[in-house]
Design a protein that fits this description.
By secondary structure, the chain is an alpha/beta fold. It has nine helices and 13 strands. The chain has two domains: 206 residues, 3-Layer(aba) Sandwich (Rossmann fold); 119 residues, 3-Layer(aba) Sandwich (Rossmann fold). It is globular. The structure holds aspartic acid.
Length: 358
Amino acid sequence: MSSIDLKATQAPHILVLGVGGTIAGIASEPDNNPLQYRAGQVGVEDLLKQVQAVIPSELKLVSVQLANIDSRNLSESLLTQIGNSIKASLDDIAVQGIVITHGTDTIEETGLFLQATCGKAAEKLGKRVVLTGAMLPSNAPGADGPNNLLGAIRWASTPLENCPGGVYAVFSGKVCMAKDLAKRHSTALNAPLMDSPASPIGLINPSWLFGVKAVEAVWSEDLPIPQEGEWPWVEILMSHAGARAETIAHWGGSGISGLVLAGTGMGGLHEAWKTPLVEVASKGIALIRTSRTGSGITDSDTPEKDLSGCMAAGSISAPRARIALQLALNAAKQANLVGKPLTWQDFFARIADLPEIR
Ligand code: ASP
């Protein structure tokens, strides 16, 4: 294992990128209180040592520590670095597959980001990029990290006929596409997949496989990765009892590029927001409407006609919709610079309109 220069390793290998999270966490009193811990304390090389004994000796692993953070602090700059590393590694002929160890808090964002920016390249090159993490710190009794890491390495390295390259996630012995990954429980061991279609590793459900292929067929091309410091400013606002017009007016004057509105139920927005939202949209601020429920679909013109300039997020949650809108705004800007008259709505629709795997 090496944590230095990828280019130095010419032999075929699985690349394991460490980003941090609970999988690399340490609890000070693991037996008494395993949920009081610091994430991002153990290096990825040491995580691999925990599973080395059960990995076939002919499988070469190369580890690189990209960061070691609690993913609640995930930054847009780090997303850029992760994306660029994945792109470069996919192009490296020696890299057969990639595993990323990541905190579960924002793995949903990184999953959508990688799927939208690297998914097509992974598919074309026939390589699997696999996100994983853990709910218990590395020194807790019954820590789930080693098993998840092992599962991710297997998924990245096992040649499976008919299973396309792409961006996936593996947790608790199950696999899903990274775009479907969501943490829907604060503490449960299988929290990161609770809201996601999943299939046990090694027992690929043929209908699930069809879904993967359907998504990849619709996905026309990867979106560009925003450069560090060039991510558009987008915030998420939740509609709730007692919502105020002033909140929208405040953000309208902030210099923001877009707002993701997590509405109630099917994505309904409080009446008090309607007039200021029209004002905000007229200033060119991009608006996305999604649901605060955390699952299900937000369809356009449902439960009522959309405000002009406001787009429904389809099946993507508010945190994912925020990343998707940032990528869409950036992609439209890049396209316009080379004279292509594409809008952020064109790019956002490529992500939001993907078929669901159910
Ligand atoms: N706070 C941790 C993180 O996201 C939670 C986890 O990894 O499960 O880094």
